[in-house]
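Figure 2 data, in text form.
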Amino acid sequence: MSAEFLADLVPFIIVGFAAQLVDGALGMAFGVICNSLLVGVLGMPPALASAKVHLVECFTTGASGISHLAHRNIAKSLFLRLAGAGVLGGVAGAYLLSNIDAAVVKPIVLAYLTGIGIWLIVRGIFYPPAPKEARHVAPLGAVGGFLDAAGGGGWGPVVTSNLLVQGVEPRRVIGTVSAAEFFLTVAVSITFISQIGLADLAGATLGLIVGGVMAAPIGAYAAKRIPVKPLLIFVGVVLTITSVVGIVTALRG
């Protein structure tokens, strides 16, 4: 492995580390951050970028899920309802993106996520709400999985945001959504590989994997230790900023 190849990997290792640190602590944003880099900065085709991100997430979500399990951040009943529906939606979204350009719907989805982000900031300011049981979990998982695959990211922002808005305990939401995402990313990756092949998956992919796996245990620990009120506000701020940047990028493209 040459020194030049290693030097080329460093920026992707840093991005993977930072993105997974945010994702592990907040239950969202790895796919959005990495996909924005690959498509917006490097000009990669959306289907190839989504395929790369989901292949990386097979490793990062696996490490993150194990870490959240160790910290007891996972709610079993919520996990079972999310995982199956998410896989079905993800497979459908990956198949669609592999055969049809779904970029036209991305600004609409990101506008919705911007609204969710602002609402989370408000909820954080007026926290705590009355505890509630999660509702409509399976449909939410199916929609989140579809948008995640078709848009190159969105499982965490769609599913985590909605469950937090419903009033479910943040660390349970983050841990459960992160663990369920592992099964989603495996299914989506297999679908992409079957449609567009396994070529050109080195370089950026390897760097993102290394950085993401390194950050996974730290993110899970942060999700358990960070106080709920600032966590909700921070989730809202991160989601709003990444969504607005995504809208601007999509409209310019």
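Caption note: The mean pLDDT is 78.
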